[in-house]
Write a structure and sequence with these properties.
By secondary structure, the protein is an alpha+beta fold. It contains ten helices and seven strands. Strand 4 and strand 5 form a beta hairpin. Helix 2 runs parallel beside helix 4 and helix 5 runs antiparallel to helix 6.
Length: about 375
């Protein structure tokens, strides 16, 4: 609809409403209520459609009032001076009311727009502050990671590399013969340090992929019991002073990755052995729950503070209870959590009532095993 036509129709509607109200009052009370009764119709038209609509209503109502209420009826003729004055006053008042109503509507709309703009500006400022805080936190976190990573590179990697380098130089010397026992000891040390270096590099690779968010999700079939038995045999050779017992039960298949599970187990068993005294027993129990295939590593070490169990899997965190017992990079448990979560599982740590600690993880069953 054309805007001018719409304005005219709206003005006509408000005019009819105003005249109808005056006619109803005239019929009910037999009294001419005057032009004041039309002011609300003028104001509402100007508020709803603008200044021009208010003027049109004023003019239309003035014509209708002259025809219907001023003698001679049904003829536009105003002879009485007082009626002329009232008509002129109504026309002037209608113009004033139309202008004021229109102006108030414009001010209201402008205030709403300004309020919306202020809210939007405040929201944008708040979002900018959040983005800035997030950026600062990210940069601070990246700086901390770089510093910690450099510390690991400069210390944790240097130690096994120095030992390997020194041992290799001694074995390579041809100016003197080494005692067989010394040679065997050097070879054993070289093997142990090489294994340590290999594990540390593997953890650092997982750490690097985790920080970039590029650890591949794993959903392949894994016979957890076989991986546990294999890793337990390997760790038993590495830690002859500690006894490992594997309780594997049924060979149920889980969803995950064979290499991931092996690395998690190596880290958990190595941690348990590192913080256990000579002659201790470490049990690895594989069983099933409603949630999936569960693996628990139970040791007889120094135990855990219940308040810190949720922090043990944070990057570079080391428990004050065990930090003084032996060294470490503080990334092993973080790597375990990253790999378990990549397999869709969960990992936990909790103190044992009888002493020591329990570290465990759970993986979902393969689809065919879950159905069976």
């Amino acid at each position: 609809m054309v805007p001018a036509t719409k304005t005219l129709l709206i003005a006509l509607a408000f005019s009819i409403i105003g005249v109808a109200v005056k006619l109803a009052i005239f019929d009910a009370f037999g009294s001419n209520a005057g032009f004041v009764i039309y002011i609300p119709a003028v104001a509402m038209a100007a508020w709803y459609r603008g200044f021009l609509a208010g003027i049109l209503v004023t003019v239309l109502i003035a014509l209708a009032d002259t025809l219907l209420f001023l003698p001679p009826l049904f003829i536009i003729a105003v002879d009485v001076r007082s009626d002329q004055i009232r008509l002129i006053a109504f026309l002037a008042g209608g113009v004033a009311v139309s202008y004021l109503s229109h102006r108030l509507r414009n001010e209201r709309d402008r205030a709403r727009v300004e309020s919306a703009e202020r809210r939007r500006a405040l929201q944008e400022a708040a979002q900018a502050r959040e983005d800035l805080a997030r950026l600062i936190h990210t940069e601070r976190r990246a700086s901390e990671l770089r510093d910690a990573f450099n510390g690991i590179i400069s210390h944790e990697l240097r130690t096994p590399i120095t030992a390997i380098y020194g041992g290799a130089k001694l074995l390579a010397r041809r100016d003197r013969e080494l005692d067989p026992d010394v040679r065997r000891e050097l070879v054993a040390d070289l093997e142990a340090e090489t294994d340590r270096l290999y594990r540390l590099v593997e953890d650092l690779l997982v750490l690097s992929r985790s920080e970039r968010g590029s650890i591949e999700r794993a959903d392949d079939p894994v016979v957890v019991a076989r991986v546990v038995e294999r890793v337990v045999r390997s760790e038993q050779e590495r830690w002859p002073g500690v006894k490992f017992i594997a309780e594997t039960g049924m060979a149920t298949t889980a969803r995950g990755d064979d290499t991931y599970v092996e690395q998690v187990l190596r880290n958990l068993l190595s941690n348990a052995a590192k913080y256990s005294s000579t002659g201790s027993t470490i049990r690895v129990i594989v069983d099933e729950t409603a949630e999936g295939i569960r693996v628990r590593v139970l040791d007889e070490g120094a135990g855990l503070d219940p308040a810190e169990t949720s922090r043990l899997f944070e990057l570079y965190y080391r428990s004050p209870v065990t930090a003084g017992i032996t060294g470490g990079a503080g990334i092993g448990l973080y790597v375990c959590r990253a790999l378990v979560e990549a397999m869709g599982g969960r990992i936990w740590a909790t103190p044992r009532p009888e002493g020591g600690a329990e570290f465990g993880f759970i993986l979902g069953r393969q689809a065919e095993d879950a159905t069976a």
